[in-house]
């Protein structure tokens, strides 16, 4: 049942091609980002952590491909555009560009982990007109653990491609910082509810802006720019 539903919803090539976006309007940055997905999936599913666990590895691949391929990709283009604008021409190289793309995937995995967790807590039915991961057959609350897998996957990618480079520590610290700030925003969001219902008495525009800055601004704008500067 899961496999049949997954195949209908999760062929990453068909999901991208089925978007109502003319090919000419897809930026080169997004194309570059998407083209690296097989490399990301391979790096994660062939790691030592997956050795000897073919059933888990298969599901792990399904989790990654289903959750990260969403229409609203704000972070990768910001990071890639910022890097191109900030890097000195004489320092730009194909090898460095490929590393930037890999870190863009680390950012995307981190944010995807938070989205999966948020959707599960709030029992959302869909996100961006697609069924939420926890609503897929045989997933349910396992999605909480899946969000942890996605989060740790971001660090696995950074370790694989940056562990021998001077930027490694800064990039790891950036991922931790983004998760901490986003988690604080999530906590503030939940404090505005009681038994799942909004508490309007304690809500105001200042609180709204602070929650939005932490839950959205850090992940969508601040994180990608800091990654480009690392």
In words, what does this structure look like?
With about 230 residues, the protein is mainly alpha-helical. It has one domain (about 25-230): Farnesyl Diphosphate Synthase. The chain is built from ten helices and four strands, in the order H-H-H-H-H-H-H-E-E-H-H-E-E-H. It has helices at about 1-10, 10-15, 30-35, 35-45, 55-70, 75-85, 95-120, 140-160, 170-190, 205-230; strands spanning about 125, 130, 195, 195-200. A hairpin with a 2-residue loop joins strand 1 (about 125) and strand 2. Helix 8 packs antiparallel against helix 9. The longest helix has 29 residues, at about 95-120. The chain starts with a helix and ends with a helix.
Summed up:
The chain is mainly α. The chain has 10 helices and 4 strands.
Entry keywords:
Farnesyl Diphosphate Synthase; two-stranded antiparallel ribbon; 68% helix; 3% strand
Strand-helix topology:
Blueprint: H1 2-10, H2 12-17, H3 28-35, H4 37-45, H5 54-68, H6 75-86, H7 94-122, E1 126-127, E2 130-131, H8 142-162, H9 168-190, E3 193-194, E4 197-198, H10 205-229
Antiparallel strand pairs: 1-2, 3-4
Helix pairs in contact: 4-5, 6-7, 6-10, 7-8, 7-9, 7-10, 8-9, 9-10
Number of domains: 1
Instruction: State the assembly state of the protein chains.
Output: single chain
Give the SSE order as H and E letters: HHHHHHHEEHHEEH
Q: Order of strands side by side in the largest beta sheet? A: 1-2
Mean pLDDT: 83
Our measurement of the CA-to-CA distance between the termini, rounded to an integer number of angstroms, reads 44 Å
The number of E-state strands comes to: 4
- Looking at the overall shape, the CATH architecture is Orthogonal Bundle
Q: Any idea what the radius of gyration is?
A: 18 Å
Approximate shape: globular
Q: Which class in CATH terms?
A: Mainly Alpha
**Secondary structure tally, helices:** 10
Helix content: 55-70%
According to CATH, the homologous superfamily is: Farnesyl Diphosphate Synthase
Percent in strands? under 5%
* pLDDT < 50 runs, ≥5 residues: 1-24
* Biggest β-sheet description: 2 strands, antiparallel
How is the CATH topology named?
Farnesyl Diphosphate Synthase
